[in-house]
Specification:
Elements lengths: L13 E5 L3 H12 L5 E6 L14 H4 L16 E5 L3 E5 L4 E4 L2 E4 L2 E4 L3 E3 L11 E2 L4 H12 L4 E4 L3 H12 L4 E4 L12 H13 L3 E3 L4 E5 L2 E4 L4 E3 L2 E4 L3 E3 L17 E2 L11 E3 L4 E5 L4 E4 L3 H20 L11 E6 L2 E7 L6 E5 L7 E7 L2 E8 L2 H13 L5 H4 L12
Parallel strand pairs: 1-2, 1-7, 2-3, 7-19, 9-16, 10-11, 10-16, 11-12, 18-20
Antiparallel strand pairs: 4-5, 5-6, 8-17, 13-14, 14-15, 20-21, 22-23, 23-26, 24-25, 25-26
Length: 412
């Protein structure tokens, strides 16, 4: 089947959006902003008003904010909220979404169910084991930090580092255990991630690499080498997968990670179905491969394409191709880390600044064109670099490595 999926072509008078996170909320809002006048129904599994997730690992967790609800007047926009409702299946041929409260008909369906955290095998039901994905998760963890428990974080990825940061700020003793040889092993090459290992010790946290969890019991984590690490609480941050198990049997094509396979306008391989955010992969002409992006900015940008394509199906004008420069940020151990682009193995790596210092940037080039960069404490590099990636401007590698030179002036 081709990447382009033929839509049904009839006017979409009823749009149903499944998932009330950033991607789902922004899709509903974008439909109204772009002039859609039909009904828009936003379905969310959680009972809470739709909320933003990044503050959960920061302000909400530390108690400096009570929540992170979106400042959106859904009623004024004519968006129907159906919260506490779980999607259980789709019947594309009948244009029906099956939910815990019965079937919901649609003319256009948007899948925006996000991702769900991976669970630590054998740890379900063990007292004191936590995930950090939802508002309820953050609220359960807040008193843990307040009581300054000894905390073990399983996984030194982005979420593990952010939680460890918050736990240290709260005065907890923190041990981070990581099965790989370095933090962020799944995201960054060894030479880039290596300097970040020192951040843990600088913040008073213990980082144990090559450390696999054998068993979790109340009050402790037992590692494969026999070490028993005291743990008043265990926070699991070992990755996430698209929340799409409920689509089994629907005929909607899924990829190797369980993600919805979409075309370059975020159309799923089913009539009148789109997908957006963490639950979908899409082909990138810029990078020549299919991308699965689990980051906030993707959930913010994709909805504009989805809304335009739904509205364009009526007007006969398809949306522009969705081919963003992926972007995300992380705040950890007093550092602001930003990343833009995508770099497979084999791209040339160039450094701007000393990674032992407080501010530095790593750039990845392909045929002297910038394809990705990681900026630590250098937001101007990030902003300029993102535009250079978008434009495909040829760079001068010698000039690029001078941290005193603005990135935008290091062109060929």
């Amino acid at each position: 089947m081709s990447e382009q999926t033929q839509q049904r072509g009839g006017p979409a008078r009823r749009v149903v959006v499944v998932g009330a996170g950033m991607a789902g909320v922004q899709t509903a809002v974008a439909l109204r902003e772009q002039g859609f006048t039909g009904t828009v129904t936003l379905i969310g599994a959680e009972p809470h008003q739709p909320y933003d997730r990044p503050p959960l690992s920061k302000a909400v967790l530390l108690g400096t904010a009570e929540g992170s609800a979106f400042d959106i007047d859904f009623e004024a926009l004519g968006i129907e909220l159906r919260l506490g409702l779980t999607a259980v299946g789709v019947r594309p041929g009948e244009h029906l979404l099956d939910t815990s409260a019965g079937p919901v008909p649609y003319d256009a369906l948007v899948l925006a169910t996000g991702a769900e955290p991976l669970r630590l095998p054998g740890a379900d039901g063990v007292p004191g084991v936590h995930l950090l994905r939802t508002l309820d998760d953050a609220e359960r963890l807040r008193p843990v930090l307040h009581r300054q428990h000894d905390v073990v974080v399983v996984g030194a990825g982005w979420i593990g580092a952010e939680f460890a940061t918050a736990a240290r700020e709260a005065g907890c003793a923190v041990t981070v255990v990581e099965a790989a040889d370095r933090p962020l092993a799944g995201a960054l090459p060894a030479e880039v991630a290596a300097p970040m290992a020192d951040w843990y010790a600088d913040a008073g946290a213990v980082l144990r690499t090559h450390a696999r969890v054998r068993h979790v019991e109340p009050g402790a984590v037992l590692l494969d080498d026999g070490t028993r690490v005291p743990a008043g609480a265990v926070v699991v941050g070992i990755g996430a997968r698209p929340a799409t198990a409920w689509l089994a049997g629907s005929g909607i094509a899924l990829g190797p990670y369980g993600e919805v396979l979409a075309d370059d306008r975020l159309r799923a391989r089913a009539p009148d179905v789109h997908a957006v955010g963490d639950c979908v992969s899409f082909p990138s002409g810029r990078y020549g491969e299919r991308l699965l992006v689990h980051h906030w900015d993707n959930a913010l940008q994709g909805p504009r394409t989805v809304a335009a394509d739904i509205i364009g199906a009526v007007a006969g004008e398809p949306a522009a191709v969705y081919d963003p420069v992926p972007y995300f940020w992380s705040e950890q151990f007093g550092r602001f880390v930003q990343y833009a682009g995508h770099h497979p193995a084999g791209d040339t790596t160039l450094w701007r600044g000393d990674p032992a210092g407080p501010a530095w940037t790593v750039c990845w080039l392909r045929e002297n064109r910038l394809v990705a960069l990681l900026a630590v404490g250098r937001p101007r590099d990030l902003a300029q670099g993102r535009r250079l990636i978008e434009s495909g401007t040829a760079m001068n590698p010698r000039l690029l490595t001078d941290p005193a030179r603005p990135l935008k002036s290091a062109t060929a």
